Amino acid sequence: MRKKQKNFYDSYDALFSKPALFTKQEKTYEKNMPKLKLKSIVMIMKDSAKTPSKSKKKEKKPAKKKLSMILAIVFLVIIFFVIKTANNSSGSFSSYSDEYIDVYPLKEGTVNKTSDKNFSTPLALSINDHSIVTNNGYVLEVLNDADIEIQKEELSVLPTNDKYANYFYIAYIPFYSNRRYERSASMFISGNITNSLNESFIKDKNSFSKAYFEKDIGEVKNGYVVTYKEGEYSKVSISRFFIFPDETGLWLKADSNEENTEKLTVENTLEEVKEVLGNDFTFLDENFTFKKSE
Length: 294
What we know:
Layout: H1 8-15, H2 29-32, H3 38-50, H4 54-99, E1 100-103, H5 105-108, E2 123-128, E3 131-134, E4 138-142, E5 149-150, E6 156-157, E7 167-177, E8 180-190, H6 193-196, E9 199-202, E10 208-213, E11 221-229, E12 235-243, E13 249-255, H7 270-276, H8 278-287, E14 288-292
Antiparallel strand pairs: 1-9, 2-3, 2-6, 3-4, 4-14, 5-7, 7-8, 8-13, 10-11, 11-12, 12-13
């Protein structure tokens, strides 16, 4: 038999040995690791968690002291500003009261209520052409060539005893001659006209606000309030007022067009005032009529 001839690749493989694809390495760390009991490890971990380091203990006390100091400083600053603000406000109020005086001309004119008030029944107005009708039986007629320009949608107000009673500007009434503007009046309504009609004046001035009463119209007290404000440019106004028994009321206000108003003083009688402000009184009397409604 013939011997089997060696293949070239067999000779090559015999000359060069092939390395193993994967070699197993021993895990030596398991041999070197000290064998500690599980219970001991757990105890050590608990002790380390409970016992803080000395450096941490030392840091807590200074932090608390610093926080306390900051809070104390903030508190003192707040107290300082509160006291300072209170002193300033009281000082400004006292300076105002030292310089100004509040005047209630209708109170000084001894207006007293004539009946018990029903605080649930309002004074209400309705406007029909040139007639301003109240819900308690009276009408204010606007005469001659004039417009009534309503300034407020709700034309009613409840009676009140409030010292600072609300009042409302309800109408602007301009007058014309051949439709050329001449002058105007403003109309107001109040839940307590005695408290609402007031003025503030600088003390030691000749300024004043004084009420002059006319004959009652039914149960309605009425008249004029003349206000004179002295200054570089003195200002005078006249208010025609109507006060109902529950102290609700309305008034018309017009600025004076007269000169020489410096002649006015608080001691003047109504006749003396009319001598100085004749045209102003004529304007109000000829253009407005107040009466009981039919």
